[in-house]
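Data card: per-record layout.
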Amino acid sequence: MTQELNFDICSFLPELSLFILVLFLFAAIIFGANKNPKASNGILNLLPILTLAIVAVSAVSLTADSTMFWGSYKVDTLSQFFKLLVAAGFCVAVINARKQTTLEEGQRLDYFLFLSFSAWGLMLMASAAELVTIYLAMELASYSLYILIPLRAKSKGAAEAGIKYILFGAAATALALYGLSWVIASQHTTYISELVTKDWAFASNPLATVGLSLFLAGMFYKLALFPFHFWCPDVYQGASNETAAYVATLPKLGAIVVLVRLGVLIVPGGDLANMIAVLAAISMTFGNLCALVQKDLKRMLGFSSVAHAGYILVGLVPGTPYGLAAASFYALAYVAMNLLCFWVISRMAPDGRNLTYRDLNGLSKRSPWLAMSLAAAAISLVGLPPTVGFIGKLWLVTGAWGHGYNWLVILLCVNSAIAIYYYLSLVRHAYTEGVNDPLRGQAPDTGLFSSVGATVLALIVVVLGIVPAPFFKIALDAGLTLLP
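The structure for this 484-residue chain is written out next.
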């Protein structure tokens, strides 16, 4: 454990740049920009440029490597990789939410302030190398979401979703904190670098094993893993389309990077590995079966994310650098696929209503670019080539096969086959169904902004599937650093 502050501002640039954005928005609100439509619109027009600058800063600092704050904060390849993903996802979420119609006047800058604060907490989670620091960063990232989810004008469903997320989140947080106390009592340290040398067998140290399992429950809640998934479909359905796009993607990155960092504690074939394997199997099966019967698109994507949480954990159970790299890369794939899906949903419903499959009927005739982008997202979510979803699942399967969990790999493949039905239903409704009924609500946004954004995200999903090596190499380098 490093007994020095050792603060390096260059290594802290991604977090610092995002925190400056938080302070800028806070100052703008304090000085009344929310009440001045001209000032508010000017700041909203400036936001995409500022977020792109944060992405650039994160990309430049990708190779930084240091330990700060007495060993509790680690800047390494893994942390910088996930900070880049958080910055890029945050940029897309900001651009997607800039014109949302479900925010009441006077709330727009507040909305982006809390969105920025949540993303800042996720960046802190990426570098947290000590359990108390992880817990505090998780809370920073979560508190903003408690405020954001109910912000949907004149929607009782959004208020219900917000209450559910707060109550269930409080329960998960309490479990994590209780588990943390057990880990401290049994292992006498909270630093991951020291915990890796400790005994994690249930037979010889049950207090530590149960404590770590409870602490992981907090991460499983953020990831929407079974049986901590119960909030997910309801929150996606109740929140606005733009808020759901953020909740469905970026908070998962925070949970995944913590699970990957804690993966060094998982002994292949041990008690923790077997528990995670069982949860992964149940989660992917339960999520896919429930998604089959959904009509609301966001609710379907909610159960879909339960299944994908199971997929991601397949990379953790082997306890190898390749498996950790596969889980990290699949996090990138998951965020790209879902941001594309929610972009299309937000453009299809500019008035903020929830969409069903029937709302997609005839989309290929109304907006060919949105239909093509939705098809790319659906094909990638299924895991078909040449998309990033295919290569991500391929590396998960390759990483887990031959390490005692072949049954889990087979189950992943079976569940991917099950998912074909409801994912490709998106394509079927968009391309083969005619518009028989009058369109509900406002017509889709088919403007240049909508089409270009969808096309760029679709290209990212496809290009990452064709040329994945540079990003996977970064993830593999991170895995080798954690588990040489």
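Known properties of this structure: The longest strand covers residues 66-68. Residues 227 and 259 are 17 Å apart (CA to CA).

See the next section for split statistics.
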